[in-house]
Every structure is written in C-alpha cells, then in structure tokens.
Amino acid sequence: MLLTHKATVWKVSLVTLLVAAVIGVVGATVYIYSGFYDIAAAEPHTGPVRSVLRTTARNSVERHARGVEIPNLADAKLIRRGFELYQELCVVCHGAPGVAKSRIGIGMNPNPPPLEDAVNYWKAEEIYWIIEHGLKMAGMPAFGIGVSPHNSWALTAFVMRLSSITPVEYARMAAAVSDPDPRVAEAFSWTRHEDPGWTTLLARGDAEEGRQLIRELGCGTCHRVPGVLGATGRNAPPLDGWSRRHYLAGIQMNTPALLVDWLVDPLAFKPGTAMPDVGASETEAWHIARYLYTLD
Ligand code: HEC
Ligand code: HEC
Q1: Distance linking the first and last C-alpha atoms of the chain
Q2: How many CB atoms sit inside 10 A of residue 246's CB?
Q3: 149 CB under 6 A from ligand 2?
Q4: Per residue in 9-48, pLDDT tens?
Q5: Gap between the Cα atoms of 68 and 129, Å rounded
Q6: d(CA 109, CA 253)
Q7: 253 Cβ inside 6 Å of ligand 2
Q8: Which candidate, 76, 245, 264, 274, places its Cα nearest to that of 161?
Q9: Minimal CA–CA distance to 130: which of 105, 106, 159, 108?
C-alpha cells in the first residue's frame, strides 16, 4: 500500500515537471519569435540579467586564468610599449586618465568601465587573459587575435599601473611618444618606482584613529563623511563611497599616496583650491586615508 502511494506521488511530480518544462520551452519560443524583447543597447540589462552575466564572467575568468605564467611586469620598456598599444586599441572604449572615451565606448552596453581601478578587482594573469581572449556577451574584443602575447603582456603591465598615472602624466607621455626626443625617457621616469599596492600602503594608517582625526580636524564642517559624528557639511563634495572614486579633487587619480599628498598640503596639490590646509601631518593623513578607503 505504502509502495504504491509512493509510486503515485513520483508519477504525479514527474508529469508536473514535464508539463512545466514544456510550458517553459513553448513560452520562451513564443517570446523569442514575438519580438517583444527590447534588444536596444540604449536600454540597460535588467538587474538580475546583469548580475548573472557579471558573475559568470568573473568566475570564468578566474578559472581560465589559473596557472598563467606572469613575466616581469615592472620592465619600463614593456610598460611603455603597453602605453602605445593602449592609446591605439583601448582608449576608444575605456578612456584614460584625463581622456574621455569615444562615442563608440559611450554607446556600448554593457558600458566599458574605466580601467584605472581594474588592478583592485583583477589579478595580473586575469587582466592578461581578458585582453587575450576578450569577454563574450560584453563586447570586449579578443586581442589575442591580431596582437602577440608579448604585446598583451605589455598592455597588462600598463593597465596594472594605470591607477597611479595622473592625467597630467598621461598627457606628458602621450606628447613624448609622438616625438622621438629624449623627453620620452623623462616622461616615463615614474616607471622606475615600484608601485607597492594599495593594501600595503593603506596598512600605514589606522582606520579608527583616522575617524577620530576627521572629527577633531573639523572636516565635517565642510564634508559629509559617513560614520563620523556631526560630519554633515555641505560646502564641499561628500566623501561617501570614497573607495570607489576615480578622481581626487578633479585633477588626479584617486590613489592612497596622492590622497595623503592632498591632505597634507591641498594648495600645493591644486593651486587655488578652496580646500584649506587643515594642518594634518603625514602620519595623520595616512590614518585619515585608511578610514576614507573603508567607505564603500
Ligand atoms: C569595443 C570596445 C572595447 C575595446 C576597444 C576594449 N574594451 Fe575592454 N571591455 C569592453 C567592455 C564592454 C567590457 C566589459 C564591461 C562589463 O562587462 O561590465 C570590457 C572589459 C574589460 C576589462 C575588465 C574590466 C572590469 O573591471 O570588468 C579589462 C581589463 C579590459 N576590458 C581591458 C581592455 C584593454 C587593455 C583594451 C585594449 C587592448 C580593451 N579592453 C579594449 C569594451 C572594450
Ligand atoms: C573649509 C572647508 C573644508 C574643510 C574643513 C575640509 N575640506 Fe576637504 N574639501 C573642501 C573643498 C572646497 C573641496 C573641493 C576642492 C577641489 O576640488 O578643488 C575639498 C575636497 C576634498 C577631497 C577631495 C574630494 C573629491 O571629490 O575629490 C577630500 C578627500 C577632502 N576634501 C578631505 C578632507 C578631509 C579629510 C578634511 C579634514 C582633515 C577636509 N577635507 C577638510 C573643503 C574643506
């Protein structure tokens, strides 16, 4: 008796599943042929679709880039080659420090992101893999078709350093490479310095001390700063989501080292700025920077 009952339950569930599957397939087919789906690139993907695409891409890149061997990316010649290729192949879609993307990049869906902070989201081998193989369903071309692996590494080396190149430096490099002059070496002199990475840099400060300092130095009379009591000022840009900002005071890349320079001496950083010298020492500025980069 029990056995037959179980068997019936099984049969009923199976039939229900089959019917649901058939309805699903028929529904999808009707939808596909009806033309109701809005294929316009100008209409963004819905949240869930975008989320599925991104998660798929992230995990796929992580898996496929495993075990890729990385050459020396600190080589100045390689970075310079990467810069030249970047200008030729990437700026159209991704833009560069102080350079807007072209209309091709503006009209794309998904929108090609600025690559200044790619280094915070991807490892070197993953950036290389993306450049070599491209991203399906995103419009990111596979440069492995037409660009040698050496050049893909050059591009990777350059993208890895993009977060520390200011708009002024970028413009100087662009001017220098189009002119076969000794100024080239000078414009690229920054490649001699090793970029120690954000995590190491930020470890110089303490977030809790930073929060206290922001309160004591009165930053909140001008800025809104989440998590700091009374910091509700409206005279200056709010500092919410600081870790995601690309620019600092509208003229430089937002990086920890540059933020510290800015806090220590705003007027030297940007002559004529309305941000006053708040009297923060370099040590204090590292604490403040540590706190601001916790803001997501
Ligand atoms: C035709 C436009 C186009 C060109 C040209 C292009 N890209 Fe992309 N790229 C994209 C798009 C679109 C995405 C994916 C955006 C998404 O999924 O959010 C992307 C994503 C990326 C990513 C991953 C970034 C991230 O955080 O998701 C990297 C790295 C990248 N591109 C590097 C490059 C480099 C280097 C070049 C030049 C060699 C280049 N791209 C040229 C359109 C382009
Ligand atoms: C008297 C008002 C005032 C005070 C006090 C002040 N700032 Fe500012 N701050 C400004 C103004 C105005 C700007 C915009 C300057 C510009 O872009 O040239 C600015 C810009 C900034 C920026 C860059 C914002 C952006 O969007 O790029 C940061 C970061 C910043 N301030 C942090 C601080 C911190 C931390 C303190 C306290 C130690 C502080 N400020 C104190 C007025 C103030």
Answers
A1: 61
A2: 13
A3: no
A4: 899 999 999 999 999 999 999 999 999 999 998 888 889 9
A5: 8
A6: 25
A7: no
A8: 76
A9: 159
